Amino acid sequence: MEIYFASVMGFCFGVERAVEIAEKTLTEYKNIKVYSLGPLIHNEEFLAELSSKGLLICDENNIEEIEEESAVIIRAHGVRPAIISKLEEKKCIIVDATCPRVKASQTMVSKYTGEGKHVILSGDKNHGEVKSIAGFAKKPLIQLQTTREAENFALGDDNSDEYVLMSQTTFSPDEFEKIQTILQNKINKLTVKNTICPATKERQNSLLELCSRVEGVLVIGGKNSANTKRLFQTAKENCKFAAHIQTADDIPEDFFKLHTVGITAGASTPAKIIEEVKNKLNF
């Protein structure tokens, strides 16, 4: 069997930075409890490893469970300012691992809504990043997740208001472009700020190239990882055999019969798990 790898895969800059910050925090604060506000990354195996080192996970809706004067890591997705205020009331040490690109979007939303503009945010409505960005708005955001929602979006009688279109950093570039086109045909004053991380497009392009060379593709990543789900969807559409797996134990039996297999991985997938998948295919 020949195994090929996507040229861009695995940890993105924001996730890698968050993991490094978490490991440093666990080393630095050994005498107090260390929490991650929500899962640090969408990878159960790696979270278990961090948990064995002492990392506790608390949902942002259960702040009352966090012990006072503990250390709390803000994950790459970021959180709403209201959550930060609650942590400050508990005298917690706040360790901010928000991805710089997410932080830039938070600042942008605050600025534009503060100027009275309507901000349209495309992305997965229930995603932590989208919720954190929305928390910085001075007025409610308009959230669109699909082209159908964009088509159904209705303006008032007066089309003179200013709108700004932004995106979740890991949203589908193709979906964003379609939403953009629909809105540009509806809104007279629309400013487009493509806030999708370049690595997202690079991952998709790398996967498409990989699909053209192999019989089957394994997409490694957490089942709750939005960017991994999108990679899997692309793999299904462009390769005869495609599977979304979390670990080497999840590899479907059919893949061991193939002559060429491609491997890609979501932004929260550690190199260690990618290596384990490769080794099992070679066994």
Structural commentary:
- 43% of the residues are buried.
- The mean pLDDT is 93.
- The radius of gyration is 21 Å and the shape is flat.
- The chain has helices spanning 13-28, 44-52, 81-89, 100-114, 128-134, 147-152, 173-184, 198-211, 226-238, 271-282, and strands at 2-5, 34-37, 55-58, 71-74, 93-96, 118-122, 142-144, 163-167, 190-192, 216-220, 241-245, 260-265.
- The protein is an alpha/beta fold and 283 residues long.
- Helices cover 40% and strands 18% of the residues.
- The strands form three sheets. Strands 1-12-10-11 form a four-stranded parallel sheet, sandwiched between helices. Strands 3-2-4-5 form a four-stranded parallel sheet, with helices on both faces.
- Strand 2 (34-37), helix 2 (44-52) and strand 3 form a beta-alpha-beta unit.
- It has ten helices and twelve strands.
Largest sheet, order of strands side by side? 1-12-10-11
Proportion of residues in helical segments:
25-40%
Radius of gyration using CA atoms only: 21 Å
Shape: flat
What is the end-to-end distance? 10 Å
User: What is the H/E order?
Assistant: EHEHEEHEHEHEHEHEHEHEEH
Count of beta strands:
12
Largest sheet: 4 strands, parallel
Classification by helices and strands: alpha/beta
